[in-house]
Amino acid sequence: MAERLSALTHLASAGGGNSRVRLSEIRPGSILQIQAWPETAVTVRRVIAELLGTETPPLGQASAGRGVTVAAIAHGRYLLAGDASDLVQKFEAALPSADAAVSDISHGRVILRLEGEAAAEVLSTSVALDLDLSEFPAGRVAQTMIHHVDVLIHRRTETHFELWVLRSFAESLAEWLLDQGLAFGIGAA
Amino acid sequence: MPGFRLPQGGTRVDRTRPLRFSFDGAPVGGFAGDTLASALIASGRTVVARSFKYHRPRGIYSAGSEEPNALVTLGSGSVEPNSKATIVEAQDGLRVRSQNAWPSLAFDAGAVNGLFSRFFAAGFYYKTFMGPGRAGWMLYEPFIRRAAGLGKASFEPDPDRYETGHAFCDVLVVGGGPAGLSAALAAGRTGARVILCEDNPVLGGALDLEDRIADGNSADWLFGTLSALNGLANVRRMTRTSVYGYYDDDVLGAVETLPPGSQARQRHWRIQAKGVVLATGAIERPFVFPGNDVPGVMLAGSALAYARRYGVAVGGDVVLFTNNDGGWRTALALSRAGVPVRAIVDPRSQAPADAAQLLAEAGAECLTGHVVTAARGGTALKSVKVEAFDAGTGKTSGAARDLKCDALAVAAGWVPRVHLASQAGAPPVYSEAIHAFVPGAPREHWMAAGAIRGTFDAEAAAAEGERAGAEAANASGFNSFPGIPQKKPKDGGAAQRTGAMLPLFEIPAKGKAFVDLQNDVTASDVRLAQREGFESVEHLKRYTTLGMAADQGKTSNLNGLSILANARGVPIPAVGTTRFRPPYNPVSLGALAGRARGGHLAALRRTPLHDWHLKAGGLMTNVGLWHRPRAYMQPGETLEQAYVREARAVRASVGITDVSTLGKIDVQGPDAATFLDRVYTNTFSTLPVGKARYGLMLRDDGFLYDDGTTWRLGDNRYLMTTTTANGALVYQNLEMLLAIAWPELKVSLASLTDQWAGVAVAGPNSRALLENALDDMDVSDTGLPFMGVKAGHIGGIAVLVARLSFSGERAYEVYCGSDHALAVWERLLEAGKAFSVVPYGLEALGTLRIEKGHVTGAEIDGRTSVQDLGLEKMFSAKKNFVGKPLALRPALTDPGRKQLVGLRSLDGISISSGAHLVAGPDAKEPGRSQGHVTAMCFSPALEGYVALALLERGRQRHGEKLFAADPVRGKHGPVEVVDPCFFDKDGNRMHG
Hints:
The complex is a heterodimer of chains A (189) and B (992). With 189 residues, chain A is of the alpha+beta class. Chain A contains four helices and eleven strands, in the order E-E-H-E-E-E-H-E-E-H-E-E-E-H-E. The longest helix of chain A has 14 residues, at 167-180. Chain B starts with a strand and ends with a helix. Chain B is an alpha+beta fold and 992 residues long. Chain B is elongated and about 115 Å long. Chains A and B meet through strand 6 and helix 4 of A and strand 9, strand 40 and helix 23 of B.
């Protein structure tokens, strides 16, 4: 099997910056979308819990288990990212078409990590969401836009955000964030 | 003696840090903390600008954003025109230039306009250049435009960096004076998230122009309040931040100007508040009298501000002209700051005794019962003419006398800054108490506090602010801090500050008296406009330009209104006031654009092969947000030579092209087949697994929407492809249909556009190439028949291969995960070496499809029907689908409609895309348009220029000769109408 080539091969070379905020790429083995049917939501939640060992989060939130993240982005719709490269096959086997639709988007999404004390400030340059911890606590996910690009924002901790973006926009978004982060001493890793 | 630096004083300047900038090339010294204006006054300069219409010399008039005169241009090369010298902080090395003056400020040729000023009265341009009998406005306009305008923009790119930010709060306080500070403190103490915005670099507002607040020293009060604010982490203080617009849902726009030497020049803020306290203060009102624009005439409070904040005296011989007690206090404060005050002129018969006595002791003459009837001087004030005044009759009387002076400070009361309140509320309301407008009823969640309401006394303003801050926090869900005493504001705050004001604003005297200094609008212009019928204040504004441009009439609107009311013989409230729109202060285009410029103008979509295309000499072009290669250029090639070479190579052997941009949608679920039958004009439920079918989609209105092939990968799973342009739109539309129209269908969609990279392999040797490349797939005609889809591997990488053709050749599309695209692409090139495989770009792709008459977005342009493009066979009669009812409208099936045809050039010259098809052989008499060209190319297969076109009744007209008219490029060439399929009509090549 050939090695997978990141959409962000130029990112690592950007380097620089200080430790206040850093941009890097997370490279999960699998990314997938699962859509339950109205009457199979319980089944799907059970299967996710069984296969990943983590509870499914309520709508608008994400739960993070060991090496896996589950985000609830719409009724019965989940985005999953995990270290293992065979999650799609596992879920397709466990969830026949009568139970849910499983879509492999492992190559179609890029997940950027923006981490550091100034991470929320960097995002606030471009995101029209209130990122105050009281309004956007750890665990929240929101689908929004950064400079006209659709982005799913997942706040893991106060200072650690993950941004899910279509692969074709990833380099452009990274360039944008590195530019926006100049005033905060952003660096790439 | 003009202005000078006082030996001491200046709370905002650091006398240990001198700096130097240039003004019109001459060096000007100053200190860190100076504004351009304070340094210019201190340097003794009187003239800083020429006026807009008459080119009269003008000096600095104020100390804030209300400045009408001192507009300057900053920088060289790339410049910032119309900057207000009163708010720009002085920086070492800054280059500042005056405006509207030629050849120089001292001698301005345009001042000749002043001699003919009676011709330049209100409405001059309208009367002279427009209307019946006048030679066209079109003729004059360019000359008028050259003469008009404030400042000149540069054609250089702006080198400065502008940033953006989004901020959220429970309570936004606009204005950092006593009211605003108290509001921020009261709101902050409830625990609410508070943002306090202040234009100036320091907080305090005009408090530093007062000696006392309540029973204490104002400086102590300010120190105490700021210390208390410092202790509140939930209060964010944003100085140098001008809130310019109040929009719906309590969203406000603000521009932060960063301190000199910062990485960025400005930062634009979008602030979303739950509640707002408007504590924007007031602007001092000037008098209207002849010569009131001579350099040296300025607002009295501003003169005091220069003394206290910058240690600058505005003159060595100052006369103060006021109609209220506050003016006397200002005079006393000026005198105590070391500014020589020669006289105080007041139309009232009584002066405040204490101030008058102290001023008299300091050597100032107290001229009560007098008015200034003229200011005299050219480039600097030399004297003022003073006459006795009878407040009872409103007339001057007695002998006039001249008072020598070099500065005249005017103080005619205060005008609330109601702009933001007006933007987000009912029209301002006239207050008889202060003879000015105060905010009307709010439309958004704001409260006004302090001088904006006419509460001019600092203590009363602070009490109002405190209450407003607490209430705004309460309304946002925060309980008021129990320790705060809820003081009831004192009544009559207006009287405290302006004290028994005599409402005299225009002095009865002959001469050119300016109302709007920025636009050179005089009192007689206002009266003339009224006589000519412009009685509405909105008409007055547009006819005379009163209150327009960079200062938006901050010092002129009210005086203009009162003159209009007077001329009409009605009270001011009956005249009303103009409403205010954003921006309160000018906002630079750079701040609005932020970082969205140059390479960051729009996001760029890259296919996984983007870098390869660049390295291979791909001439990239924008296709939506994507960049795609038009052709891979070889040295010395023109674009046409490059694409013709590529297209020839495909037909001769084999080529590959990147089709990753095609929209791809995962359609899954037990009802997937039913769903597709409803959205496509043709049937997909009958498609066997492992096969692809070309499909058409219509819009609701029956016109063609999109096309593409959809592959059945399983009983309940399809992979839909769309055009590049419509990928996102089709996906959204399908989601909408599932959510709204057919929620009962169990279908799930996912965008796979970015998941799958696609490579088309086309040409007679495409199968041989794939046989070399694939690890494990039979691509023989039986193994993978036409429109077949199969999974396999290339170099261990999982791929999907579909046998489809857009080019008319035997062809395949190879899909793989995007992260594997480069590896697959390179393996395909390697496998094709034996067949001299070439990569080909968009132009060759287009050429090959034009030769086959295949349609794209150029033909599916939102105006064409299924019949127009000859696709009736795909219009199912057996089922219903989106758009079917309206597609059957007579208008869409009318045989007279434009239909797809092919064109051959008969003169060997290219046919322009967009050219119109006409019957007339003469370009000068082309006749009416019968159709238009949608796509053109040089066809290597036909060795000539060909095109596709939409032509009225085109299918019946094959063989006819027409002309392709392109008057824009001067082309008018003969063409023959032919079948749109130019090449291999039987499809033998495709089926191999």
